[in-house]
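User: structure tokens for this one?
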Amino acid sequence: MRDLAVEAISKIVNESIKSKLQDKFDDILTRSATNKGQNHKDSDIRYKDLLKGNFELSKVVRIERTNDTNNIWLKIADFTTDTVKNLIKEGEIDAWLSLIRDDIDSKELSSDVELKNVLTDLSIQISKSIKIYNYQNSKNVCDNLTAFINKVNEKKQIIDNLNPHQTENFSKSIEILKSILLCR
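Assistant:
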């Protein structure tokens, strides 16, 4: 990946633009990458480490894009900035929802059927409301996210006894979703 970026930058003719782009790329490489690892510690992984492959993958989750009834089939050729931004946003939201569902389906939480059912129902409500409002901010979506985290906090002791730090993981995931959806 790094080689591709360097090659792309080298093909820019304007030296001023090339220099600015190289500086921006170098800055990104030195930034810390977000880590939602199993060890629950903030790590010092930088983007350059990710490009080098100096990390260990501990979990793989398959995330599939669902069909959106609001889209039309001809949109496949729509490469406008707004469409691409929306697709990226939808992908991020779908990924976080998938990770939340995966956490709910973990073998530890599955041992408490009632708890699992409550959290599953709430996650389904979140997914439905997000799709109804076409991945945009709405009071309903934000209220469903808040209801989920309130239920997690209410059941904190049970959840953390089944899977240590799981309420913290749920809280982080919901906060990220709220920020993507611009919920207050």
